[in-house]
Amino acid sequence: MSFLLTAALSFKLSEIRFWKYYFMDIKPLETEQIGIQTLEKQLMTSESNISLKIGLPKEVSNDERRICLTPDGVSILKANGHEIFVEKEAGSEANFTDQEYADAGATIAHGIDEVYQKSEMIVKVAPPTEEELDLLEDNHILISALHLGNANEPFIETLIERSITAIGFEFIRGEDKEFPIVRMMHEITGSMAVQIGAHYLEKGEGGQGIMLGGISGIPPATVVILGAGITAEYAARTALGYGAQVFVMDNDLARLRHLENALDRRIITATANYQYISSALAYADVVIGATEQEGDRAPCMVTEPMVMNMKPGSVIVDTVIDQGGCVATSRTTTHSNPIFSAHEVIHYCVPNIPSNVARTATYALNNVIVPYLLDIGDAGDIKECLWKNTALRNGTYVYKKHLTKKSLAELFDMPYRSIEMLIASQI
Question: Is residue 147 flagged as an active site residue?
């Protein structure tokens, strides 16, 4: 009997010591780095076959504050034999200093020209501007977003003429059918959209002067979410957290069922037809446009007469404005000038919402992109990597002077060739 008692006490003490160690070891200020620390332990064992020269230019697009790699990500790549060139102050908007990048092993370049000249691969958030396109050299590898709503034919033609291998964030898709970069940015966007809507409902911001969540005796605000994808799911979760009444509208019944089950039926769902959208918008305090269309422009679901019928001081947050927007009255705005009013309805149409939480978004980008860069190094060259890596192959939209995305070819009325065929034919 005494033996069993002693064993039980010994087990209990060891359990207490384990949890004490666990909670003391993870400090609150270190939580944002837990993911990258785990990633580093897993990836430091990789042995790259080639040394990549990777360039991180400072973003010059309006209000773009994110960067693709953190200093921790740079240290992982450096440990695997790669060279990283970071333009001076490239990470400043995300609160990463040049000294942190230098300590991680990066070379700090004093101008954008130096980054492009010394690098064979450019990794950035926003698509290259016209000035940056001029800096791209033949056979450069470009990994960045494409922004379908703003993409144009001359941009694609320039990439084709210079034999750039261009990989777009929007197209990177693994064998699990997930879009990892898009998903992370959509999670951030969905949560932020509700914060933004709540902010602009305040009277001082031109709104109705109401709270998103109700209090005792006063009903909550109504949030209407158009779409039932990742952005919509995280918007719904956040809106429910505020205490709002939430409607989600989509024409994909499977998605609506999934969302109802995931949120324990605390939302109201409806098909996104003219009648239901018109009725819902007439009562809405906040409308979040989140109609995602994979690799294509967003469908316009809200007409101008619908907006005219909304309550004065209500708010529209069009999160798919970078894909053309899903509200007829939407037009692109910036973080420095984020809103405009149309028919007495506040419109927030900033295309890069995650940029406003640049540090969080940079960690998210880093955790997805670093393994891909290591895969390219391990494969020995980009062609071999594209053949083996489904996600990067799906993400490639220009390769060996050919457009390789059918959706882009249809959008710009340009010829295209399958990337699988290009690689298999040894082109």
Answer: yes
